[in-house]
Amino acid sequence: MNLAETERPRWRAAVGLIVAAALLTFSAMAIGYHQPPERGEIGVVFPPWVSQIEAFDAVIDAGGRLTAVGRFPNIVIAFALDGDFAQRVTARGALFVTAARGLCAPVEEFQT
Questions:
Q1: Full-prediction pTM beyond 0.70?
Q2: Residue 80 and residue 17: Cα distance in Å, rounded?
Q3: Which of 5, 7, 8, 77 is deepest in the core (most CB within 10 A)?
Q4: Cα separation, 95 vs 92, whole angstroms
Q5: What distance in Å separates the CA atoms of residue 11 and residue 61, rounded to the nearest whole number?
């Protein structure tokens, strides 16, 4: 066995560790960015077959306040009054809650 054959596995292992560390860091940042607050404005994501009226009713029944609509009909922006809102709204049909950012941000009105 020559030196080139023993160095190749070490090089591949180092690249693998760097890629794994980068993916772990990116995942942690993405999760932290979209982590919903316990109280405040959050995006509530419902299944696509749930109408907006049904989504509005679920948010209100869970004790939240409607603040805006999302970019898609199955996303509602709500104001959570307490830390248990997320649990209550998912029990009423929401898939998950997230921070009101990105695709779950309120639709801004365009002014011309």
A1: no
A2: 40
A3: 77
A4: 9
A5: 57
